[in-house]
Amino acid sequence: MIQALRGFRDILPDETDIWQKIEKLAKEIFENFGFREIRLPILEKTEVFARGIGDTTDIVEKEMFSFQDSKGRSQTMRPEATASIARAYIQHKMYSRSPEQKLYTIGPMFRKERPQKGRYRQFYQINAEVLGIDSPALDAQLIVMLQELFTKLGIKNLNTIINSLGCKKCRKEYNLVLSSFLKDLDSLCGDCTRRKEKNPLRILDCKNELCRENLGNAPLFENYLCDDCKTHFSNLKEFLDIEKINYKIDSRLVRGLDYYTRTAFEIQTDELGAQSAVAGGGRYNGLVENLGGPETPGIGFAIGFDRLVEIISSKIKSENKSSPDIFFISFGKKAKTKAFKICNEMSRAGIKTELEFSEKSMKALMKKANRINAKFCAIIGENELEKNIISLKDMDQGKQMEVNEKDLILYMKQNLKATGESYSV
Ligand code: HAM
């Protein structure tokens, strides 16, 4: 048996109902907040991510699926979408039409991480990104928009964590202070010992117990923010308060990507074990410039789609979208041809149909009708052919009636409408 690769999984039809429902709702909400969809390639030049996310991040250092093309140029299966969005913004000079762009994109990402519950090598994200606006009100609005989606999905008990990671200017100063604090610490994990030199900020959110203990007295970034960053952060908090968003400030929230400036946030849950982040995001004012574009502020977030599904699949009742409105049973070649035609016509008219192709007995097919949860069975045999009628059995009520062949579609539409079933006019 050939199995899927480790960390890569199939999402089967019983699960896709929930995926579709979330996707539809997210699109609806994002569009109501002024976002438009962008679709991006899955494969990019490696430098998009190396330069965009940062050379010393875990993602770029060890998690990318990269390979060389026939000319030896490195290409990478995207590990995230933000750098690609910035690349597209620059490539298509989207700023020349309107510097302010509100974009969303949904799709698979790839990271070579050790697979576990809530962590896959191919996973899906719902991204929303805004380019060209540098207002703390927007930072708050993105968190409001995320909360709106979670609320509409009936998810409670999520924690919203925020922090400010400063700007180029104050980060430099803080890095110096942090580095001198770290200099004297020698009991850090292997990763953090390496990061001491290259990326000290990342040590702050290391999950290793020993590192966490040792960093208990680390200097706090909030004490080193410059005036502009301080104002931005306090304005963000005010806007969140206006919308009565509950949040916690965690000065250790650094996030794993180097492009963040000022606002960083995460939505966390207790329900997924170690993989607690359902969504994460933040401001990235230098990213577009760093990838060769004009100076452009940016902010966005990504929801971990797989994790969101895991949280809610136990909570929301999945509608059984697959059960047919009408199941066609016919006996003999002539009746089968008629069933074939009427059935197609009904599908085209927006009614969910299922056509039986076999020659099984009535008893066996009634069993099947129950198994697939058909609302009605249309039966066509010798008698029906002679009288140009369809015998229609209401499976819920057990009643059987005869309907004129030409009235069948109208009859079904009225009936499904009356019972509030899936047909909508
Ligand atoms: P991230 O924190 O790396 O941020 O990923 C965002 C979310 O994707 C995580 O909170 C998590 O829910 C989900 N996720 C990440 N890795 C995996 C995995 N291996 N398996 C399952 N789910 C995963 C970013 O990607 C940034 N681009 C977010 C952003 C957008 N920042 C600004 N704009």
Q: Total strand count, please?
A: 16
Largest sheet: 8 strands, mixed
What is the mean predicted local confidence, pLDDT?
Answer: 92
Strand order of the largest sheet: 1-5-6-11-10-9-7-8
Bound molecules: histidyl-adenosine monophosphate
Terminal residue distance: 46 Å
CA radius of gyration is: 28 Å
Tertiary shape: elongated
Strand content: 15-25%
* Low-pLDDT stretches: none
Structural class: alpha+beta
The share of residues in helices is: 25-40%
Number of helices: 16
Topology of this structure?
Elements: H1 13-32, E1 36-37, E2 43-45, H2 46-53, H3 58-63, E3 65-68, E4 74-77, H4 82-91, H5 94-97, E5 101-110, E6 122-131, H6 136-152, E7 159-164, H7 168-183, H8 190-198, H9 209-214, H10 227-242, E8 248-249, E9 263-268, E10 277-283, H11 287-290, E11 298-304, H12 305-313, E12 326-330, H13 333-348, E13 353-355, H14 362-371, E14 376-380, H15 382-387, E15 389-394, E16 400-404, H16 408-418
Parallel strand pairs: 1-5, 7-8, 12-13, 12-14
Antiparallel strand pairs: 2-4, 3-4, 5-6, 6-11, 7-9, 9-10, 10-11, 14-15, 15-16
How would you describe this structure in keywords?
single chain; about 425 residues; alpha+beta; 8-stranded mixed beta sheet; 5-stranded mixed beta sheet; elongated; binds histidyl-adenosine monophosphate
3D architecture notes:
The structure is a single chain. The protein has helices at 13-32, 46-53, 58-63, 82-91, 94-97, 136-152, 168-183, 190-198, 209-214, 227-242, 287-290, 305-313, 333-348, 362-371, 382-387, 408-418, and strands at residues 36-37, 43-45, 65-68, 74-77, 101-110, 122-131, 159-164, 248-249, 263-268, 277-283, 298-304, 326-330, 353-355, 376-380, 389-394, 400-404. It starts with 12 loop residues before the first helix and ends in a 7-residue tail after the last helix. The chain is α+β, with helices and mostly antiparallel strands and 425 residues long. It contains 16 helices and 16 strands. Helix 1 (13-32) packs antiparallel against helix 6 (136-152), helix 2 packs across helix 4 and helix 6 packs parallel to helix 10. It binds histidyl-adenosine monophosphate. Histidyl-adenosine monophosphate (HAM) binds at residues 80, 82, 111, 113, 118-120, 123, 125, 127, 129, 255-257, 277-282, 300-302, 304, 306-307. Residues 80, 82, 111, 113, 118-120, 123, 125, 127, 129, 255-257, 277-282, 300-302, 304, 306-307 line the site of histidyl-adenosine monophosphate.
